[in-house]
Design goal:
Layout: H1 2-15, H2 19-22, H3 30-38, H4 48-59, H5 61-71, H6 79-85, H7 97-108, H8 112-115, E1 116-119, E2 125-126, E3 130-137, E4 142-148, H9 152-173, H10 177-180, H11 182-196, H12 199-212, E5 219-220, E6 233-237, E7 242-243, H13 247-252, H14 257-275, E8 277-279, E9 287-289, E10 295-297, E11 303-305, H15 308-322, H16 326-335, H17 345-356, H18 369-383, H19 392-408, H20 414-429, H21 431-449, H22 453-463, H23 468-479, H24 482-505
Parallel strand pairs: 5-10
Antiparallel strand pairs: 1-3, 2-3, 3-4, 4-6, 7-9, 8-11, 9-10
Helix pairs in contact: 1-9, 4-5, 4-6, 5-6, 9-11, 14-19, 14-20, 15-16, 15-20, 16-17, 17-18, 20-21, 21-24
């Protein structure tokens, strides 16, 4: 099956003439003519950008998502290709309306008219995994109905299996591949793609994100109508917004584009560092802008999560980077285990400085991220820095954010915009403020544990007198003044009680 899929990919590449990307040199100019003779269905008369889009569409959802990500990076590719790939965001050929209605009626065990007062059979958006129709419920609420593509799970499973085979071959044929962990990266990608095929999971992610940004002045998340949601269907509040990638339309509506770009950066860092739960598919097809300038999130199929240690290391990296403290960046890489423990800090510091220093104090339009990424890759290879599979989605999202920022405001200074927010967040995580926040969080546990301490200590002394803890307590009592020890213990208990009461009362 994998061999058949691989042959199909090769066939599609040749059929749409994409060998022009691979065979640009004089020595290989004879190959396209040879392929033309062998492949009669070859389509190479259309523009190359259009053929690339059509090829990705025909190959399926994984390749479409790759094209969607590339479409946001206009700084990395020619304008004609970026414009064509942008059509993959919500203009993938839809499946038939008859299929959509059949899926809805099968899921609800009702006729369509019993569920919706009106239902628009022509989809308003069609993407790689699902398509969306507008409808109105019988109580008058306007909704968007997302329907999973029929048979999409099998297609994705086959593509993931093929990618895993390629990763396996890469690991065994290239010695540097193990550092990049391609199979772990594919496994992480597979997990998120399969999550995207469960629309109940997507609905719950939307609900969580809405709760995280309740009463927010930056982001709107639609309401989920749970009564009509299944694993294949999601029904949510219909949103009315403007396309985020149409600067002319936004300006006409009176939207402040520089502020909008800065708000997008703040939304990203808020999701990542405050919540550890972030929208990981932020291409223009999944985002709109409300009339009041707030972002509207529309798709929640791919959401990323971060652990507290990951958040701490990332925040320290970002802040040290913004302060141009390259030594601290190097130290954090080693402390987190991302770089080998025997790495010399001064050497890694110098390498990071040579990559990052040239891009500071420059707007996005003057930064070649292709060159920066290449230099970072070379540096990571030189020092044996391993790819962190759990951060792959974050890196993809950051690329999307930078791409959107570049379209909205080419003068955006990504570093200066993010630095104050991150420094404020870090001040809440460390020092006295961080200590008090942690204490407030743990107060209910302390309130439960403190009354039990005398009983637990008494049981320990009676049942296991041979324990080192018992011996240590006896030695302490013998060495210290008994009265002073009692006073200290009473003061400690009173202090703990006051702290617990303070934080419980809030």
């Amino acid at each position: 099956m994998r061999l058949i899929r691989l042959l199909k990919i090769i066939f599609v590449v040749l059929r749409f003439g994409l060998d022009e990307f691979l065979l640009p040199h004089a020595r290989t100019r004879w190959l396209p003519a040879t392929i033309n003779l062998l492949l009669f269905t070859r389509k190479n008369s259309s523009p190359l950008a259009e053929r690339l889009r059509l090829a990705l569409e025909s190959l399926g959802p994984i390749f479409v998502k790759f094209g969607q990500m590339l479409s946001t990076r206009r700084d990395l590719m020619p304008t004609d290709i970026a414009d064509e790939l942008a059509k993959l965001q919500d203009q993938v050929p839809p499946f038939s309306s008859a299929q959509a209605i059949f899926l809805l009626e099968s899921a609800y065990k009702k006729k369509l008219g019993e569920v919706f007062r009106t239902f628009e059979e022509t989809p308003v958006a069609s993407a790689s995994v699902a398509q969306v129709h507008f409808a109105v419920l019988h109580d008058g609420r306007e909704v968007a109905v997302k329907i999973l593509r029929p048979g999409i799970a099998d297609i994705i499973s086959h593509d993931i299996a093929l990618l895993d085979t390629c990763a396996y071959l890469l690991e065994h044929s290239w010695k540097d591949a193990k550092r990049l962990k391609p199979r772990q990266v594919i496994e992480e990608f597979k997990k998120h793609l399969h999550n995207e095929l469960d629309l109940m999971r997507e609905a719950s992610s939307a609900s969580q994100l809405k709760r995280n940004f309740s009463n927010s002045s930056l982001l709107i998340v639609p309401e989920i109508y749970w009564d009509w949601c299944t694993e294949q269907i999601m029904v949510m509040e219909r949103m009315h917004g403007l396309p985020v990638n149409r600067g002319d339309v936004l300006r006409t509506a009176g939207i402040d584009l520089p502020k909008l770009a800065a708000n997008g950066v703040e939304i990203f860092y808020t999701q990542v560092f405050r919540d550890g739960f972030f929208h990981a598919d932020m291409h223009p097809g999944n985002i709109q802008i409300a009339a009041d300038g707030r972002y509207i999130a529309l798709d929640f199929g791919i959401m990323g999560t971060l652990t507290d240690p990951d958040k701490q290391y990332l925040a320290q990296n970002f802040i040290a980077f913004f302060r141009r403290d390259y030594k601290r960046v190097a130290e954090v890489h080693i402390e987190s285990g991302w770089a080998p423990a025997n790495t010399r800090v001064d050497e890694l510091e110098a390498a990071i400085r040579s990559v990052c220093e040239p891009i500071f104090d420059r707007p996005l339009r003057e930064v070649s991220f292709g060159r920066v990424l290449l230099r970072l890759f070379q540096t990571s290879r030189q020092f044996g820095i391993e790819v962190q599979p759990q951060l792959v989605l974050l890196q993809k999202t950051l690329l999307n954010i930078e791409g959107l920022g570049l379209q909205l405001d080419p003068e955006l200074d990504l570093w200066k915009t993010a630095k104050p927010w991150l420094e404020c967040w870090m001040s809440e995580q460390v020092g006295w403020r961080g200590f008090l926040n942690a204490l407030r969080t743990e107060a209910p546990n302390y309130a439960t544990l403190l009354p039990q301490l005398p009983r637990l200590l008494h049981q320990s002394l009676n049942e296991k007198p041979e324990l080192q803890l018992t011996k240590a307590i006896h030695e302490l009592i013998n060495r210290q003044n008994r009265i002073q020890l009692q006073i200290n213990l009473i003061a400690f208990v009173v202090l703990c009680g006051l702290i617990v009461l303070y934080f419980i009362r809030g």
